[in-house]
Amino acid sequence: MKILVVSPVFWPEAFRVNDLVAALVEAGHEVEVLAGMPNYPEGRFHQGYGWRGPMEEQHEGARILRFPVRPRGKGRALELMVHYATWVVGACLRLLTVSRKDWDVVFVCQTSPVSAALPGLLARWLSGAPAAIWVQDLWPDIVQATGVVTHPWLLKAIGWFSNKIYRSFDRVIAQSEGFRTALGERGIAAERLTCIHNWAEELYGVEPLARLRVSPEPWRGGFVLMFAGNLGRVQGLPTLLDAAERLKSHPRIHWVFLGDGAMADWMRKEITRRSLESCVWMLGRYPVEKMPEFFAGADALLMSLGRGKALSLTIPTKLQSYLAAGRPILGSVDGEAARVIEDSGAGWVAPAEDPKALAELVLRLANTGLAERQAMGQAGRAYWERLFQRDGCLREIQGNLKQLLPTGGSAGEGRLSLATIQVMLQRTRRAGPQAVPAAGNRKGGNR
Q1: Is 226 helix (H, G, I), strand (E, B) or coil?
Q2: Same structural domain, 248 and 131
Q3: Helix (H) or strand (E) holding 253
Q4: Is the pLDDT reported for residue 426 higher than 70?
Q5: CB 3.0–4.6 Å: which of 57, 89, 102, 378 could bond 419 by disulfide?
Q6: Domain count, the chain
């Protein structure tokens, strides 16, 4: 297959779509990626990128079609709106400059916002190819959960717009069962809707975590709780600091945060205001390749989200990495993420935004024997091996894309790509009218 991947984020930005593209190329597919100039999470162009390019490059055998975008800046509302708008406009203009629009399938990785899927629909129209959307953020639920939009009429308008986009795709792939249920309630037919979970990075399966060496740090010797990932508005960070403040009289309990985001500055100020410098540590952002080494030094991994319907339907991608790491997990979450933690046996869960309940779980786990904690970690890793391994999830996505082809007998059946039409016309001109079969005699039936 020749596949166009449309994604608001892509290498060198660290997202699961990078794994997907590499796997598609490895499987023998020809892949092009439509992506803007990388600027996440710093909010400025990565080194070597800018308004002038590069407009085209190669990565893992895939051809990347770049275009300039206004960087995210510090993530303020107006900055993000401008960034999102320039991404859509830039992506659509870049598509129009592509000389050969002969893709067999268009695949959209839909993070936020949902409007990022619009260039994918344009590519679908230009090529005549079927299109699939991989829903990572459910709209408008996510904007309601973050509090960015509160007016009912505006939420209703965004909901209408989001549903029109989701219904326009031949295949809708949800990242959780909660997403699949919610999308089904919006009128997407069951045969066009499926759930494929995200996976943990492949590096967790290369070497057992316990064998990785960890350098000494000031908190060694205590009970280390570790949070890794985006320090954003929906991550429930106030709950974690509230729980840390409740436990600051327990000097052996340390809270370690890896990552960066819109709430990082607020956290630093709160740590100082609450006098938590001796028990809360912010280390900043590190490459994903370093995470197993950090996790090896943790006694438990923290998973937290705010409260809200959209967040309760989400399985954050780092949860798969936590499970693969083989460490106990403490959650301050509701819904799907809580279900995974409890079903796996990897840890315990407090309700979202309940610091008192979370603090009680931390004390309980800190007083639990090492053998029991190790058993929890092993149960989580076994659960990851069953449900969230990279190769299995990637095979499912490839299978769904193949089903969209005319020979796949699925949602894309009967739709000819532009390249196929051109080939048929060329053969017809060379062979004459007798080469064109009657419609009723074409292989596969009428089109």
Answers
A1: strand
A2: no
A3: strand 253-258
A4: no
A5: 102
A6: 2
Structure tokens of 419?
A: 């390249």
The two structure tokens encoding residue 99: 């000389």
The parent domain of residue 221 ranges over: 202-388
CA torsion through residues 437, 439, 442, 447, sign: positive
Query: What is the rounded average pLDDT for all residues in the chain?
Result: 85
Structural domain contains residue 160: yes
Q: Concatenated DSSP letters for 33-97?
A: EEEE---TTTTSPPTT-BTTB--EEEETTEEEEEE-----TT--HHHHHHHHHHHHHHHHHHHHH
Q: Within a domain: residue 435?
A: no
Question: Is the domain of 213 the same as that of 359?
Answer: yes
- Name residues whose C-beta falls within 8 Å of residue 402's C-beta, 6 or more positions apart in sequence: 1, 408
Q: Which residue in 24, 1, 20 sits closest to 10, CA to CA?
A: 20
236, 349: one domain: yes
* Distance linking the first and last C-alpha atoms of the chain: 21
Lowest-pLDDT range, 39-43, 263-267, 429-433?
Answer: 429-433
Q: Which residues pair with 348 in a beta bridge?
A: 330
The domain spanning residue 346 has which CATH number?
3.40.50.2000
Q: What is the pLDDT of residues 254-310, one digit of tens each?
A: 999 999 888 999 999 999 999 999 999 999 988 888 888 889 889 999 999 999 887
Distances, alpha carbon 286 to alpha carbons 14, 17, 230, 406, in Å: 11, 19, 11, 44
- 424, pLDDT greater than 70: no
| Co-location of 365 and 397 in the same domain | no
* 446 found inside a domain: no
Residue pair 85/95 in contact (Cβ under 8 Å)? The answer is: no
**Cis peptide before 406, with omega less than 30 degrees from 0?**
no
Strand order in the sheet with 347-350: 280-284, 253-258, 223-228, 300-304, 329-332, 347-350
Q: Indicate the pLDDT class of residue 247, thresholds 50, 70 and 90.
A: very high
Greater model confidence, 240 or 390: 240
181 shares a domain with 41: yes
In angstroms, rounded to a whole number, what is the distance separating the alpha carbons of residues 61 and 30?
Answer: 8
User: Contact, 135 vs 173, CB < 8 A?
Assistant: yes
Asked if residue 273 lies in contact with residue 242, where contact means CB atoms within 8 angstroms, the answer is no
- Indicate whether 383 and 400 sit together in one domain: no
d(C-alpha 256, C-alpha 244), whole Å: 11
Average pLDDT rounded to a whole number, residues 203-208: 59
Q: Is residue 285 part of a domain?
A: yes
Q: Are 90 and 130 spatial neighbours (Cβ–Cβ below 8 Å)? A: no
Band (430; pLDDT cuts 50, 70, 90) = very low
Residue 410 reports pLDDT greater than 50: no
